[in-house]
């Protein structure tokens, strides 16, 4: 099978990219999804909610923060402001159906190789040859284990519901969004929680919500502290080096030689890595620990291989939220159209720009707050 463009992944980024291609008049593409549309969102803990609110403000030139297409709104479709993972997966399924996206679910990409100017994908559907490859595999399905013995902890992504966690005293490793969310959910169940972290968004001074803790998470934390109905202790400047199980529980060793004991299995909230680094590490330069991309989010070592989604970094800007990374889809679509010398729907492209779905110059992106 030959396709001009193959998108790998049918989550928020993959569906959003597919809609953008359709809207701008590019039809020679397909989307491959290892499992089902929105699979990662469906695997969120039942209690987890979006930290960005959804609101039907599209008619006033301010699209819903969680929309992955210009003219849709999860808030309108689902009648909810704080979406669960399953809610959002339902929204993605509805969008895919509305735009008749060519998605093949339960279709794993097992290997990718570049031959001259094309990409050969070995998939469950057989061999697919593509001129352009867009990775939208996301992060949630790829938990980060960044130190020895971390496999002995229970990662945030392995939680179905916080009610499944046993024991009255819990140790959480990691103090940013997932770590504080885990601590709050556990404390709400009456558990005493100790959070160990090197740094935390709770005390970050930056205004960028990709660095500072989200307002809703901070609000939940402060409200919890005010009620005095549970216990969460946060220990900062703690770097974990190892976890070792023993007959009494778990010994957690720090890089400065200290030892922390946990009777119950520790909870690991140290984040995620992008699946493209596992699926096709040879196509991207990641020697700095991050994907090195050019101005249109293309690999610097593999022509026509692009990255979209929360791992995108460009000119120092972090695109880890949906309302951020959706602004890069049309830029890639436009670049492909120009390289192929095919017409693009300029009216829709102008509309994308008008609706803040097109950000091509990140040099002036700042979130400094003067108040």
TrEMBL record:
Q: Which domain of life is it from?
A: Bacteria
Q: Name one Pfam family in it.
A: Pyr_redox_3
Q: Could you list this entry's UniProt keywords, alphabetically sorted.
A: Oxidoreductase
Q: Which InterPro entries match?
A: Auxin_biosynth/cation_transpt, FAD/NAD-bd_sf
Per the record's keyword annotation, is Metal-binding included, yes or no? no
Does this entry carry the keyword Oxidoreductase? yes
- Which protein are we looking at? Pyridine nucleotide-disulfide oxidoreductase
- Organism of origin: Candidatus Enterococcus lowellii
